[in-house]
Amino acid sequence: MTTYLAMNRWIYPENNHKKQHPLLELEQTIKKYGLVVVDNITQMPFYGKPYNCNYVVYSLCHRGWVLAEYDSHEVEFRPHEICIIMPNHTITAHESSPDYLATLIVVCPETFNEMQRHSIYRHQASFKKLPAFPLADNQYASIVELFSLVRTVSRLNTTQKPVMLANLIDTLNTLLSIYRFPDDTDRIKEIPPGEQLFDRYYNLIVANHATTREVGFYAKQFNLTAKYFSTLIKRETGIAAGDWISNYIVIQAKTLLRNAPELNIQQIGLKLGFSDQAAFSRYFKTNTGQSPREYREKWI
Questions:
Q1: By three-state DSSP, how is residue 27 classified?
Q2: Sheet containing 35-41: which strands, arranged edge to edge?
Q3: Who wins on pLDDT, 19 or 152?
Q4: pLDDT of 5-55, one tens digit each?
């Protein structure tokens, strides 16, 4: 299996990855129906450049592997693992094995949010931090059956289909949470208030990170004090509220530094809401230990 070369450069595959990915081919179909099951996935959407998926994607790996970065963190996707990608996260695929095979459930955010209104439980925060986890053989078999049922219902022509799919996705979320957190069964009783808060907070960061980096701004959106808001976010996710902001900005900065050579460092800083290059450089170095220029030079 190919890993890093010198200077953190990857060998990108040149075999069967030239065909357009089904996620791109089926964009209009996904928007029209809200939920689509896609079989026989043998490649990633792009290799060597970031891809910000606008959908909620449940990806079940049957065989083979993928090496990638998720929000600038190295990840591997292996057989009998399931990966749940929420919108507004950056994936950079580097390599996949020739025998890679996966099935996807792709859900539009609007459809997913409507489904969540009827949900008894969800654990999105954990999947935002670490999207993939392995399944035991019996768990994998159960998820394959559930994927098959979602596929069957998604093809029905009935007014009951939205409710049926919402119930199935809720069952899928709950089952995956049980598999991933077997000692956390008490949380299945209801949607944790802190998690609902975090979901909205993350979406606000995506929308406002270039205009404000203050926790107090976000706390006001919930009519909470900054201190209490920070306590709730830290209790739910294990990560401080301010760190979620800085982490998101750094991820966007790294993506632009590596993949937008047409933009200089000052332009990247302005794009991310910094008044000048010096302010951006100080922020980036405080949060990464290196300057933007030093980081970019590693990828030239």
A1: helix
A2: 35-41, 101-107, 56-63, 81-85, 132-134
A3: 152
A4: 223 334 444 444 456 788 888 888 888 888 999 999 999 988 888 888 888
